[in-house]
Amino acid sequence: MERQNNQHESNETKTACAVSRKPKGSVRTKVSVALLFLLIFSMISATFAWFTISEFSSVNNMNISIGSGVQLFISGEDHGSDIALYSKELTNEDINAQLPEGVSLDDFVLFPVTSKNGREMYTQGGDLKAANGNSYLEFTAYLISTESMWVHLTSEDTEAGANNGTKVATTDTGARADIVKCTRVSFTDAESNKTVIYEPGKTNGADVAGQTTFDLPSPMKLSDSTRVCYLEKMTPKKVVIRIWIDGEDPECDDDVQLSNLQVRLNFRGTDENNVPVN
Fold first, then answer.
1. Any residues with CB less than 8 A from the CB of 168 and at least 6 apart, and which?
2. Residue 143 pLDDT > 90, yes or no?
3. Which end of the chain is less crowded, N or C, counting CB atoms within 10 A of the terminal residue's CB?
4. What is the Rg, in whole angstroms, of the alpha carbon atoms belonging to the chain?
């Protein structure tokens, strides 16, 4: 009898131990699943946005030329209404003259930043970045026209064979070619502070970082959405141009590091109905 009682107590003890051990295994399983989801989330974050090693990333060989349409002229300096001092092109030398000493387009490096408004640029960690360091390119263009007009960004050439229509391109192939999709170019009317952001190769997906952007249609059709600023007759307008690689773009991953980028911009003047001014 005593032996039966002892056996009964022993069975109860084993059962109690089994019950007490079961939650521990369950907790371990839950922790493992949680760590797995955390790992997957980390992999997704690293793969689809921002360079993971930004201090070693760069975009080289940037070439910028800006052509302008009939009756529209440009310069890197404000010459007032003396239109003879303006020209039809803003060259790399004109842009280099605006950059800090020791910095030129030949060796300019872009690190990923992001911006909601196309004016202030921030790192992934939220730090405000200054222009023309290892971050983003900023320069000024002064536009002037012989009559009042709306100025548009256009992919059309100024004349047949000129090959000066707006284009963001790269000589890289494969995954590196996605650098074009990460690029943003903003234009700020210094008088009104109104800014528009050009996103080459924009898809129908949602805008990143709260940006409102536009792409150029193909074939080119001038519309309200392609306007950069408004010019009064013989009155120069200061436009600040910024070029950056947006870290929030899904294509801005490690694959586009060390890519090369060429940026060409071209403007065209129209009347209030977006009819080109000849």
1. 180, 183, 185, 200, 201, 261, 262, 263, 264
2. yes
3. N
4. 28
